[in-house]
Amino acid sequence: MSAMGSIQQRNLRYLALVFFLLTASSPAAGVQIRLAGSGSTQCSGRVEIYHNNTWGTVCDDSWDLNDAEVVCRQLGCGGALRTAQSTHFGQGTGQIWLDDVACSGSERSLTECRHRGFGSHDCNHGKDAGVICSESLSKPSISMNPAGEVTWGQDVSITCSISIQVHLDGTFLLQQTSGSFRTTQTSSTNSATFIIPKVNFDNEGSYQCQYQTSVSRRDFSSPLSDSVRLSVTVRLPKPSISMNPAGEVTWGQDVSVTCLISTQHLGGTFLLQQTSGSFRKTQTSRTNSATFIIPKVNFDNEGSYQCQYQTSVSRRDFSSPLSDSVRLSVTVRLQPPSISLTSPNRGSEVTRGDSFVFTCSSSSHYPTGVFFLIFSGSNITDPKPAVNHSASFNFPAAEYEHQGNYSCVYEVTWSTRKYTSPTAAPVSVLIKMPLLPLVSSVAGGGLLLLLLVLVVCLVVRRRRRAKQPETLVQTQLSVRGSNHFEDDEKEEDYVNVDSVCTKGKLKEETGRGEEEESDDDHDYEDAGPNANSIKDTVICSSVKDNREEEQAEEKEEESSDDEDHDYEEVGPDANSIKATVVCFSVNDNREEQAKKEESSDDEDNYVNVTQPFVEENVDIYGENEDLDIY
What we know:
Layout: H1 2-24, E1 32-41, E2 44-51, E3 54-58, H2 65-75, E4 80-84, H3 86-89, E5 95-98, E6 130-133, E7 141-145, E8 149-151, E9 156-161, E10 170-176, E11 182-187, E12 191-196, E13 205-215, E14 218-221, E15 228-233, E16 240-244, E17 248-250, E18 255-260, E19 269-274, E20 280-284, E21 289-294, E22 303-313, E23 316-319, E24 326-331, E25 338-342, E26 349-351, E27 356-361, E28 370-375, E29 384-385, E30 390-395, E31 404-414, E32 417-420, E33 427-432, H4 435-466, E34 495-499, H5 503-508, H6 510-516, E35 535-545, H7 550-558, E36 579-588, H8 593-598
Parallel strand pairs: 3-5, 8-15, 17-24, 26-33
Antiparallel strand pairs: 1-2, 2-3, 2-6, 4-6, 7-9, 9-12, 10-11, 10-13, 13-14, 13-15, 16-18, 18-21, 19-20, 19-22, 22-23, 22-24, 25-27, 27-30, 28-29, 28-31, 31-32, 31-33, 34-35, 35-36
């Protein structure tokens, strides 16, 4: 249609040119005519005529549409649409050739119309006349906002404009070239804007606009504008992404990642993917968000995550941009382990030599881990691998160096990274002595102390006796002797103490005593003049009970084999007589003190009194008799 209009317009111009050539030499043709001025076109502008080799203007006094119709016809620009004042196309210069022009509208030329004559006027260039012919309706321009692809649901505006320099009451037409869409809008200006609200895929296509106007009951239409294409797409916004808990996440903890999008295209699918890994998970949602759960995260889950929204509209798929990324960092937070002591004592005290065991355990359940036992702030000992989240440290025999404070540390190594727990609360171990050796030591110490006291007492006693002179003691406790005399006087109750051995007798018996005494472990030793040259005195006393044995004495005297025996032993086996034999040995060392310093003998300077044995207790029946033994 636009091509046809262009051909017709070109033909009309040719006809106008032929008509101008034919009438230019005729008197009716008058002079040449043109449209000039600012913003003028071939069929609109300030009217100027060529007379007497000079171009001059026409005064607009009595200038109307009939006058404009003759000008438009003469120029071959169709019918007249409007008259124009000089302010529209600007003022001319030079001559003003015509004034008070009055045409009927049927004239072939403007000079054929009635006027005051060439050059006769009472005007100025401020009143220069102009016309707008119908052929001045050029092809409108068209524009769309936003340009290019339009988002589904967005409002679109299309503006049509025409280059007419006068205010017209025309109508703009917007139509879809390949569809049924058609809308009009009247405008008093040279443009109109059409709004297509919330476009969808039905609004896609090419659009053109046209300007239409009516002058003197005649309709005029501009050519169709160029076309603009409306393309509809679904532009999904970038989703937002959040992670809970944020920041570092503890190994084995559950993590939730939420994707959220602001769109009216619901019912789509959310995609969560690891930017540098193989993790990829989708979830369909009827709302504008979806939450992904990553259970029991480990170090393989570390990395950055992004989400995307995908949907289908009118059988076409659309995807949102990728969201910003969130970083998932996994760490190991170890709780302090617990430590316990197991020993036979069931407490912090351990008996020396007993075995005891420390058990370290942790509530942190990791696949691999080791325990370290720390002793009194020293360096960490050899690790023990965790078995069922615990480890035991055995001490087979407790020693004093094991006494102190013990604590545990739990360590996990994962992906070349080590994580160490805080130190466990310390447990004290006190090593004590066994009970039996302790009692034995105390008893032994007590006995040793008692023996020491006895030795001191004996030493003191002997030193006191060493100070007394050598004395031959013979005490007779009874009026009747049993050795070499008889007493005619008979007593029923008496005690006889005889001198068994004296110093003189001792010297004679020295040789015989050496032969008889061959045992070094005898309770005492008789020493003679040849025994270290020590003066000794042995005193033996026999205390007898003679009340029942008066007749038996004679038989004892007759049965005695040695009449010259120095002393008689009386014991339980000797005629069944109750007796007690007490022997004392008194050593006088006062003369030998000087010799002891030179001699190698280690004997001390003291009086040694040895009491070999006491067979029975002395039975004394005399009430007023005293028994004194020195």
